[in-house]
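Q: Got a minute? One more chain.
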Amino acid sequence: MLVAVGVSLHAWIQPVEWKDPDTLYYQAKTLSYRGEDERAALFRAFHGPLADEILAAERESIRKNPDFQRHYTNPTWIEYSSRFFHRRIFVSLAAAAVYPIFGLRSVLTVSLLGYLLLSVALFALLRRRFKPLTAGLVTVACLLAPPLQEWSFIPMTDSWGLLLETCALLAAVLVYDRGESWLAAWIGAMALVSITRDTSIIPLVAVACLCLHQRDRRSLLLLGSGVVAILPALLLWGNVSIRENLAFAFSGFNPPAEDSWKFVLHYYPQNLENLVRSDFDYGSKLGLEGPFWYLGLAIALVGAGIMVWRLRRADPFFRLATYSLLGAVVYVGLFGRYSEMRQELAFIPGLAVGLAVAGESGVQFLRERVQARQGAQVPADAPARETAAPGTS
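A: Always. Here it is, folded:
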């Protein structure tokens, strides 16, 4: 928590960065919960000083490419893209509650609070199986991840989506470790994440795979109650179909001229290739942080490989963590387009466990090598050390 506070301190005191159009949608939704018309607040935001940085970036894009389609000054685009935010109400509701205190900083304040609480949730998840030092070091490493800081330090919902995903996985583990009374925490986390972001699919995929793997009562209860927990949000606010979401993304985030499955499947391979390539190149843009990024990622992937190899073991903690990585793959794949590492934040809980596994495995390997070397240095004809008789000091 202290590290999280120190790292995020500048974001608490510096001017709010409204550099992404999503921030304006969350701001407009916050104002709607305070009695304003959401549509009017949204259009006012895009035509006011909050959008200065966004509009400047768009003008620069048009200058470089005259064929670039206007987004943020196009009423049709603003109206169309608003459909993707209907169900994301939790952060805006929390921001509306603290608005009398923080004003225009309310959405950012809630986002930063999610970042701070993530430090506790991630540490608690890792402490289910790892020593305090290992859990603490891995949590700090995750908190320092550049994409997590980038998307948590502006008025967005990413920190809360990741926080609630982590809480859901922690609650699922506690159902196994401490009993079915923890189902209430699991249901609560799933219900909240369903009105925050679309990351509810990750713990659902994890428990579904666990249910197929173990075929036990608790896995079935987790899967069934998880589905029931997210249904109210889907029924009340609906959900943009996967096809519509992919068509919008593959059209350069413009209202698509065509949103058929034929269109989506035609452009999916090239967008997926660009996503993988851009993810791999991300570290090259981090300057001095780049080597640390690639080193941490390599260690985490080694740990993930060890986790896959250990799936035959009976511990549901490691099975859940491993299957959460599969859930994150599904989640990112359903978005299908590079998002500057926003969607990829969903990998953090599973990779954190992988990082801890790799760290402890490496320490154990080195300890065994040192012990083996020390044993080899003892002369074969050395006299045996006397041992005390039982019961004597």
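A: The chain is about 70% helix and 0% strand.
Q: Perfect, thanks.
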